[in-house]
UniProtKB/TrEMBL annotation, chain A:
Major localisation: cytoplasm
Coiled coil stretches, renumbered: none
Cofactor: FMN; FAD
NCBIfam families from the UniProt entry: soxB
Name the UniProt record assigns to this protein: Sarcosine oxidase subunit beta
One GO BP annotation of this record: tetrahydrofolate metabolic process
Cellular component per GO, a single term: cytoplasm
Pfam families per record: DAO
Homology family: Belongs to the SoxB family.
Reactions catalysed according to its record: sarcosine + O2 + H2O = formaldehyde + glycine + H2O2; sarcosine + (6S)-5,6,7,8-tetrahydrofolate + O2 = (6R)-5,10-methylene-5,6,7,8-tetrahydrofolate + glycine + H2O2
Lineage: Bacteria, Pseudomonadati, Pseudomonadota, Alphaproteobacteria, Rhodobacterales
UniProtKB/TrEMBL annotation, chain B:
Entry protein name: Sarcosine oxidase subunit delta
Molecular function per GO: sarcosine oxidase activity
Pfam families, sorted: SoxD
GO BP of this protein: tetrahydrofolate metabolic process
Domain of life: Bacteria
Amino acid sequence: MKRYSAFAIAREAMRHHTGWNRAWRDAQPKPKYDVIIVGAGGHGLATAYYLGKNFGITNVAILEKGWLGGGNTGRNTTIIRSNYLQDPSAAIYEKSRSLYETMSQDLNYNVMFSPRGLIMLAQTHHEVRGYQRTAHANALQGVSTEFISPERVKELVPIINIDGPRYPVLGGLYQARGGTARHDAVAWGYARACSDMGMDVIQQCEVTAVRTEGGKVTGVDTTRGPINCDKLGGVVAGHSGHLCDMAGFRLPIESVALQALVSEPIKPCMDVVVMANTVHGYMSQSDKGEMVIGGGTDGYNNYTQRGSFHHIEETVRALIETFPMVSRLKMLRQWGGIVDVTGDRSPILSKTPVEGMFINCGWGTGGFKAIPGSGWAMAELMAKGQSPLTDEFSMHRFREGKFIDESVAAGVAH
Amino acid sequence: MLILTCPCCGVTGEETEFHAGGEAHLKRHGPGSTADQFEEYLFMRENPKGVHFERWRHVYGCGKWFHAARSTTTLEVYGTYAAQTHEPPKDLRDTISKKVPGWTWREFQ
């Protein structure tokens, strides 16, 4: 792999940029791999990357039915934070956030991590108490957050209206090292690093069946032929239920559409990420100047990667009170992704009833921030059969009633 | 946007008039059932990529619950029917079988 550097750019500038190589090989499937990861999104690629980097397992294929990073990795609002309430969540999300800090250097690929600060607005008294509780919990967990006053919110976000008649800003949970990153670059950077370690990233290769023998996984059938493996990792987000159905078991998961939209590009006006969970609107400004807006999920199961129009209307309507200037913006485009939501809004990183098959799913509406931490933990789980980061995230926790309840903690009107 | 017909009051409206209530025909087992069965009832979901049977409530209308059969891949609504039933009516199942090759109704575990 040729390293990217300032020197490389200068060198290529001298020869009409003819010396750049493909970032990753266009691999063809081999008959057998040690590990197959299904899903070449951020989480799947990160899992493969840390399998290679931390455990030396490089005979790995990453299968993708569409194109690399074309699922939720390319459809999110790129928010990175770790201000969760429960200890297991804080551990994995903070691990993830801290890995983002050095990801560009680790991968030699600029993922444009921008720890610009993130505020979750408290717009009801219930939220004020909830976020103060989270701030205290974060202090104990070693996650740096603070509860800030409305005046401080206004100072950080001059375009905000803190005296809204319906939902005034009563404070905010501020994480100074939260922020955003370039979502596609995260997938591309991992893919390049995986390919460089000798792994095969195979696109347009849909898994059509999971083959098992005596309760143990032996391989998968794909649209490009059967492939054998010793271990199988399912990292397919919204399609997890579908994949596990092939393997013969069910998950405590429902797939729903989550939408986002961006405005026309405007001059820089907001250099933090703001989340308003009561009204279900999130906003940040991209480097191109577009206001990136995320909304709520539809209430019904959906695999179509498009959502209901009225949800966009509700999201923007709610944001206009808090950000009056939004009313003057034209919206440029809108898209939807299929998110896999669990009962307690926490992910599943787990062994499954099929021996040798592992599942990493249930990240729901907040998967992007978790990509490196999720990959790190999933790789450890797959390589060693156990990881301190995933112990609490078993798919059997529902049976035991050991929820990691972030739906109440988020205070989001689900 | 989904267009649903409430089988209780007969009104046809778009989805903002209704509220989705999750998977239909979940079986709640009685006394003597196992922990597995209770977990199934509370958490495990079919979540199919295709034909889905679900509960809806006509919240901004007659307020009644009913069932709908819908495709999660095309968003086509195959039909709606009364909530007071343990499985979809036969004519609806036949309609879906005709439209979706290979689909058959199966008992939820």
